[in-house]
């Protein structure tokens, strides 16, 4: 059984609503420190973010649609790193995955990877709810070939839905042990979070972190 502190260290405590103010971000960081989460994830226009020592700062690129030229995503990622981001969650051109254009998808991810070399962590958001299994598998392999560190299920903003156990299992089967697996989108209960971990998730993107963690013992 995962303990509260163990699960907390898997969480990117997230605030990506368009109306979020600097005060809201300050409150997010304060709550993340109280909960002991691994990181905070905020919109790029809210960077830089002051955090306690040891807390990682993540941001998003091409968010939420992914319908942005790869050069723009790369430039956005580079600027975010300049502004203090240590992890970049990029949204792919989802249509490339839908059409199984995995070579072009790899090129897009590689452009972002080149713009923010290691030790910056690159997570690739696939928007799995609108992809078939072949698209999910192919996109995961493209992310791996492009040098990404994680594959991630969802933005949480797509009408098709967020994370599913099936998608996480498939992602884990495809690249688990080599890439991290981040489940995000619609995870609002302890039960759902633990189901994602059992399916193979190594990181969770949550805006309801306090609610999820209160269902666990230390």
Write a concise keyword list for the protein shown above.
alpha/beta; TIM Barrel
Q: Which SSEs are present, and which pair or pack?
A:
Layout: H1 4-8, E1 11-15, H2 22-35, E2 39-42, E3 56-61, H3 70-82, E4 87-91, H4 94-98, H5 102-115, E5 121-125, H6 133-145, E6 150-152, H7 165-175, E7 180-184, H8 190-199, E8 203-206, H9 209-213
Helix pairs in contact: 3-5, 5-6, 6-7
Structure description:
The chain is α/β, with parallel strands linked by helices and 218 residues long. It has one domain (4-213): Aldolase class I (TIM Barrel), CATH 3.20.20.70. Helix content is 41%, strand content 17%. The chain has nine helices and eight strands. The protein has helices at 4-8, 22-35, 70-82, 94-98, 102-115, 133-145, 165-175, 190-199, 209-213, and strands at 11-15, 39-42, 56-61, 87-91, 121-125, 150-152, 180-184, 203-206. Strand 5, helix 6 (133-145) and strand 6 form a beta-alpha-beta unit. Helix 3 (70-82) runs parallel beside helix 5 (102-115) and helix 6 packs across helix 7. The model has no long low-confidence stretch (mean pLDDT 97).
CATH topology: TIM Barrel
Tell me the Rg in angstroms: 16 Å
Shape: globular
Query: Main sheet, how many strands, which sense, barrel?
Result: 8 strands, parallel, barrel
The level-1 CATH class: Alpha Beta
Mean pLDDT: 97
Short overview:
This protein has 218 residues and is an alpha/beta fold.
């Amino acid at each position: 059984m995962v303990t509260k502190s163990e699960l907390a260290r898997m969480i990117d405590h997230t605030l990506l609503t368009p109306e979020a103010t600097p005060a809201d971000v300050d409150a997010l960081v304060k709550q993340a420190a109280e909960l002991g989460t691994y990181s905070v994830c905020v919109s790029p226009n809210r960077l830089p973010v002051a955090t306690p020592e040891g807390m990682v700062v993540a941001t998003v690129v091409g968010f939420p649609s992914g319908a942005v030229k790869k050069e723009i995503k790369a430039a956005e990622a580079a600027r975010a790193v300049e502004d203090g981001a240590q992890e970049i969650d990029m949204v792919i051109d989802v249509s490339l995955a839908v059409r199984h254009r995995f070579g072009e998808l790899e090129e897009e991810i590689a452009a972002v990877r080149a713009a923010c070399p290691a030790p910056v962590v690159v997570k690739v958001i696939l928007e799995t709810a609108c992809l078939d299994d072949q698209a999910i598998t192919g996109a995961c392999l493209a992310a791996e070939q492009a040098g990404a560190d994680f594959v991630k299920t969802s933005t949480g903003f797509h009408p098709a839905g967020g994370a599913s156990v099936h998608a996480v299992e498939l992602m884990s089967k495809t690249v688990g042990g080599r890439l991290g697996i981040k489940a995000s989108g619609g995870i609002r209960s302890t039960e759902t979070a633990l189901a994602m971990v059992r399916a193979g998730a190594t990181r969770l993107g949550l805006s309801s972190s306090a609610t999820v963690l209160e269902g666990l013992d230390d």
